[in-house]
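User: Structure tokens for this complex, please. No commentary.
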Amino acid sequence: MDQKIRIAIQKSGRLSDESLKLFKESGVKFNNGMKKLMATSHNFPVEFLFLRDDDIPGYVEDGVADLGIVGQNEVAEKAKNVKEIEKLGFSKCRLSLAVPKSASYNDVNDLDGKSIATSYPRILQNYIDSKGITAEIHEISGSVEIAPGIGLADAICDIVSSGSTLFSNGLKEVEEIFKSEAVLIGRHDLSPEQQNVLDRLLFRFDAVRKGKENRYVLLNAPNDKIERIIALIPGMKSPTVLPLAEEGWSSIHSVINEGMFWEVIEQLKAEGAQGILVVPIEKMVI
Ligand code: PRT
Ligand code: ZN
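Assistant:
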């Protein structure tokens, strides 16, 4: 019997849907009623705790949870003794300094001696220390973007994603100080059984991610072009080549990276490939 691992995920907020989706796509099944605090998977040795994101690093450090999913901004701000195990590629954002649009700004020295409102005092303090300036930090927990408008601070340091919150509050982004995405964090002393469950989980996450990053491609090619086409789409081990009913033609199946997709398709066409089909991959294990 495997020893269960307990994973803390955000109860409701910007990380919740993607966190749940990751486990769903990894085949980890559980019921999560809206108001529940905990859920147990019935087909994988994990339990889930649904918490506020701010509390997740602390609960992982204390061992209440073994793993957690949270933004790197929270991990850095809370500075708890936890391990960043793997970046998860969602909830990407940045922590930036912003000033009123009308303010003149050349570089960060312009903030020397000024007041800055933020929910991330630790990250901000580290940043201003690294720049050799001083600033008065006002810690506020929400609606940071209104601080300059009500005269509470000269500047703000807040999470930015599209930039529309800054824009609609008459602010301009002047320095990006931290980049963040969701990460899987863990406590340091997992038992060997728990480490084994974690390894199995990471293996599944990896298969899901590779599936998303790649496409299955099928195409028809004249036999005298097979070699050149194969060179364009080498695939995992090597492409599959099957003869078509029509003499002199073959069907080639392979896998291509999503990032190179259009470039490769154009080259395939130029080499005489026809009937190109591109199909999503659900999971990929190399
Ligand atoms: O209730 P709980 O404490 O669990 O949630 P929360 O309200 O503290 O956090 P939540 O759900 O808002 O965000 C969770 C995590 O998502 C953050 O810690 C970041 O890692 C990440 N994330 C990604 C964001 C954003 N994008 C984001 N846009 N967190 C906050 N915002 C806010 C930002 O504070 C600002 O008010 O959105 C506004 C800016 O967005 P744009 O698109 O207008 O630039
Ligand atoms: Zn929070």
